[in-house]
């Protein structure tokens, strides 16, 4: 199976951009069988990239090469958080092996693409905020919540019937948020609470056992979350954020308006990609 290749590395800073290109080109030449070699090449260009298995919301249409990584949800006293694994100094990543007994290792490398690998909160040892913080702009209901306020379960009480005129109502209630917030900002995520996610977590669909175990551990009360960065050219897509999504059959899916990639939030899949190395940190 060919590995996906990032076509659009680090967005910020020319030095980072160049280093990302070198890492990506070298890694793509290595291929699936060269994980060990990939590690050493990765070290030359940065830290902690290479072949990575992850769980995604599936890419089902358009030019995106793969799905977007799922962020395991944690509900802490009614507040929605994304789980960040423990930093493993030896491995150089934050990693939780065998997440939820799934056999899949959940790691910070899942988010190392599209320039996200340069975000300060994505560095494995970063002291960043794991609470999903309200970002206004995607959905009317979120303008009633203060920008940057924690998202809480009660905000989604109407999730079984919620709709906004795009596609069908009752498929779930979404929110845009930022995650891993530091003084430099956070990364974009989308959160969705849906009865369909409850059904998936209850084993009512036919998933491979590894993905099933992952989803049982990574979702809670029907909530699922993913890093909301299109794996094509890094736009920010959305579930029911674009009226025009109906023209592409994506009104009930996650739609990226840049080049019409479509993702299915109700189809978790296990994939591999080559995570980009993180540029060396120059401060803190
Ligand atoms: S489809 Fe091209 S950036 Fe999303």
UniProtKB/TrEMBL annotation:
Database matches in InterPro entries: Rieske_2Fe-2S_sf (IPR036922), Rieske_Fe-S_prot (IPR014349), TAT_signal (IPR006311)
Domain of life: Archaea
Alphabetized PANTHER family for the sequence: CYTOCHROME B-C1 COMPLEX SUBUNIT RIESKE, MITOCHONDRIAL
Protein name (record): Ubiquinol-cytochrome c reductase iron-sulfur subunit
């Amino acid at each position: 199976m060919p590995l996906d290749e990032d076509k659009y590395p680090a967005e910020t800073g020319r030095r980072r951009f160049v280093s990302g290109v070198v890492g990506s080109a070298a890694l793509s030449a290595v291929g699936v069988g060269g994980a060990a070699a990939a590690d050493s090449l990765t070290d030359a260009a940065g830290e902690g990239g290479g072949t990575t298995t992850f769980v995604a919301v599936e890419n089902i249409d358009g030019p995106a090469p793969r799905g977007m990584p799922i962020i395991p949800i944690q509900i802490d006293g009614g507040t929605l958080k994304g789980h960040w694994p423990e930093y493993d100094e030896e491995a150089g990543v934050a990693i939780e092996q065998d997440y939820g007994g799934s056999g899949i290792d959940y790691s910070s490398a899942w988010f190392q693409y599209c320039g996200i690998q340069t975000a300060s909160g994505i560095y494995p040892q970063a002291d960043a905020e794991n609470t999903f913080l309200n970002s206004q702009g995607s959905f009317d209901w979120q303008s009633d919540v203060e920008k940057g306020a924690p998202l809480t379960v009660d905000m989604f009480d109407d999730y079984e019937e919620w709709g906004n005129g795009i596609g069908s109502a009752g498929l779930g209630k979404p929110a845009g948020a930022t995650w891993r917030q530091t003084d430099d900002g956070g990364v974009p995520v989308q959160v969705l609470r849906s009865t369909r996610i409850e059904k998936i977590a209850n084993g009512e669909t036919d998933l491979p056992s590894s993905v099933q175990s992952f989803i049982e551990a990574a979702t809670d009360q029907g909530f699922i979350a993913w890093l909301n960065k299109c794996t094509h050219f890094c736009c920010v897509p959305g579930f029911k954020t674009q009226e025009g999504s109906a023209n592409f059959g994506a009104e009930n899916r996650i739609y990226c308006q840049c080049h019409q990639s479509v993702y299915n939030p109700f189809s978790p899949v296990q994939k591999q990609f080559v995570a980009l190395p993180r540029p060396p940190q120059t401060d803190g």
